[in-house]
């Protein structure tokens, strides 16, 4: 989604600078005017190239560290502005991370609250953090809320690291195998064509398949690639734009949850994030209805946002949270039973945290199972490929030896 850089004046007459994500410029204008800002300058930010984004990533551990440091400083009684100035001046990381922190400090100095200033830096602070901080400001428990947000983001980051770690080995093997296959079809197979082209011998089927595939790629490969490149690029662009809409995200998540293994992992991940976010808000003494409203506005998963919206309506009608969870059809029986027990005890927060930890552990077990299964499967696939190449290479040589 495009980003727009703006300079505006708030109700106190102070200048405010920041960036905002919007579908187009009129949408950005409406959102800024809804915040009682008088726009002085608004222009679309030129997107960084993929190469510069690769060289200047915003790592989530930097955000976790910043939130934890701010929580410690605020708990020690240091004024907010001094905390932000100290953290902005000593922040590590690329300019894409330090620059928004400086803007955040300037905006808070201009009279914005911390949550309002965070909302103007969406490239660093996800909606959940912004909503939680807003509630923490209202409840007077901002340091605790910041610490809880840091722990929540840290859990998400650890899961991402585990998933990447589980995929590194098979991805490396498959990449090397693909490179070897390309080398084989580029250099080895043409030499086979020269060797067996003038010899009248019945080639075995593995060799014929290899030779015909190589000839097809050599003759029609560039044409096929040039023909499919345009439609594939357009389809990718259209799919990306569609996946950014609410209906698109809804259908995409529904499709993802039907994928074997990965669908279960994705469901566990969004359930763990939901329970941990709700526990974080309730532990910060935020009322249940307000907590659900924050989840509706801040969750990344469109399915869980709709679920939180449904639960908010059910709780507003006088039902319990566990009843709303059961009616939504999104939660497994274990979660329903634990929530019902938590409500009976009058303190559902420990149950919510246990559920989040439980689904985290289930994700870890799933990743361990994937890593243990992928290794033999990838080795088996590579073994079959190598055996096929060896048969295609040596069977005709054996037949030539028999012929002579």
Quick recap:
By secondary structure, the protein is mainly alpha-helical.
Describe this structure in words.
- By secondary structure, this protein is mostly helical.
- It has a domain of 47 residues.
- Helix content is 76%, strand content 5%.
- It contains 16 helices and three strands.
- Strands 2-1-3 form a three-stranded antiparallel beta sheet.
- A hairpin with a 5-residue loop joins strand 1 and strand 2.
- Helix 4 runs antiparallel to helix 5, helix 7 packs antiparallel against helix 8 and helix 8 packs parallel to helix 16.
- It is elongated.
- The termini are far apart.
- About 2% of the residues have low confidence.
Low-confidence stretches: 48-56
Structural class: mainly alpha
Question: How widely separated are the two ends?
Answer: 69 Å
State which percent range the strand residues make up.
5-15%
Tally of helical runs? 16
Number of strands: 3
Strand order of the largest sheet: 2-1-3
Helix content: over 70%
| Sequence of secondary-structure elements | EEHEHHHHHHHHHHHHHHH
Shape: elongated
- On the 0 to 100 scale, the average pLDDT is 80
Reported for the largest beta sheet, the result is:
3 strands, antiparallel
The Cα radius of gyration reads 28 Å
């Amino acid at each position: 989604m495009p980003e727009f850089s703006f300079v505006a004046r708030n109700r106190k007459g102070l200048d405010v600078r920041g960036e905002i994500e919007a579908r187009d410029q009129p949408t950005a204008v409406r959102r800024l005017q809804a915040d009682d800002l008088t726009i002085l300058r608004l222009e679309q930010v030129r997107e960084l190239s993929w190469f510069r984004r690769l060289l200047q990533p915003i790592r989530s551990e930097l955000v976790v560290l910043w939130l934890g440091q701010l929580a410690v400083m605020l708990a020690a009684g240091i004024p907010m502005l001094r905390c932000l100035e100290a953290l902005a001046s000593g922040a590590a990381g690329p300019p894409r991370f330090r620059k928004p922190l400086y803007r955040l400090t300037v905006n808070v100095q201009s009279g914005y609250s911390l949550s309002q200033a965070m909302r103007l830096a969406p490239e660093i602070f996800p909606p959940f953090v912004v909503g939680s901080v807003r509630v923490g400001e209202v409840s007077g428990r901002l340091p605790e809320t910041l610490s809880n947000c840091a722990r929540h983001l840290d859990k998400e980051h650890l899961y991402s690291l585990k998933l990447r770690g589980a995929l590194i080995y098979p991805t490396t093997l498959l990449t090397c195998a693909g490179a070897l296959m390309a080398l084989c079809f580029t250099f080895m197979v043409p030499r086979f064509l020269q060797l067996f082209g003038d010899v009248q011998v019945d080639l075995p089927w593995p060799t014929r398949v290899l030779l015909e595939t190589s000839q097809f790629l050599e003759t029609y490969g560039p044409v096929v690639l040039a023909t499919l490149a345009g439609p594939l690029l357009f389809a990718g662009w259209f799919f990306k734009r569609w996946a950014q809409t609410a209906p698109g995200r809804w259908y995409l998540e529904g499709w993802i949850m039907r994928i074997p293994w990965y669908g279960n992992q994705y469901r566990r991940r969004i359930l763990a994030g939901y329970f941990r976010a709700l526990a974080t808000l309730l532990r910060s003494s935020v009322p249940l209805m307000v907590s659900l409203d924050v989840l509706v506005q801040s969750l990344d998963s469109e399915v869980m946002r709709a679920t939180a919206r449904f639960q908010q309506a059910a709780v507003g009608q006088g039902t319990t949270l566990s009843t709303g969870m059961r009616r939504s059809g999104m939660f497994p029986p274990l979660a329903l039973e634990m929530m019902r027990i938590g409500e009976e005890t009058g303190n559902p927060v420990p149950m919510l945290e246990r559920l989040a930890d439980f689904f985290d552990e289930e994700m870890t077990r799933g990743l361990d199972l994937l890593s243990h299964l992928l290794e033999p499967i990838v080795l088996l696939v590579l073994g079959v490929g190598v055996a096929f190449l060896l048969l295609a290479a040596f069977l005709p040589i054996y037949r030539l030896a028999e012929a002579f």
